Amino acid sequence: MRFKGTMLAVAGLCLGIGMASMAGAADEPQVVRAGLMKKAGGALGQLAAIAKGEKPYDAAVVKTSLTTLQDVAKAFPEQFPKGSETGFNTEASPKIWENMDDFKAHAKKLETAAATQLASMPADQAGVGAALKSIGGTCGECHQLYRLKR
Fold first, then answer.
1. Which domain of life is it from (predicted)?
2. What is the percentage of the chain residues whose pLDDT exceeds 90?
3. Contact between 128 and 57 (Cβ < 8 Å)
4. Which of 12, 44, 108, 125 is deepest in the core (most CB within 10 A)?
């Protein structure tokens, strides 16, 4: 009985340490920026589904998606402090830290593109397609320069 209790205590301790390290990792800039990219990808996916006619036009979805893209672009550059160049399977190119001002300018360009589309609010499937083309090009430019190919 004593052995079983000891093993349960050890298992609980290991589980607690594992959960604590996972919680700590969630605050790491590499993890935060991966989460932001996932949010942006989800928003772009929603817009693409409408643009392709896979989902009907929905103004609320368009507004939420564009707002998400604007918010992600605004927050993203702050997630690249020195020391976060590697780790956590980051896809960030070292070029970011070599050209931080240009990288931030690309993020600002995405923020502005999303804000512009949000202000004019695409009113139909064709409008969403045009907005997606504008925003997608901005994303692609940045990925070409500052994302590692895996």
1. Bacteria
2. 79
3. yes
4. 44
What pLDDT digit, counting tens, does each position of 62-85 carry?
999 999 999 999 999 999 999 999
For residue 87, give the nearest of 15, 146, 133, 32 by alpha carbon.
Answer: 32
Other CB atoms closer than 10 Å to residue 18's CB: what's the count? 10
Burial of 5 (0-12, 13-18, 19+ CB in 10 A): exposed
**What angle do the packed helices 29-51 and 59-75 form, to 10 degrees?**
150
Instruction: Give the global pTM.
Output: 0.80
In this structure, the chain runs to a length of: 150
Per DSSP, the chain holds a count of helices (H) and strands (E) of 6, 0
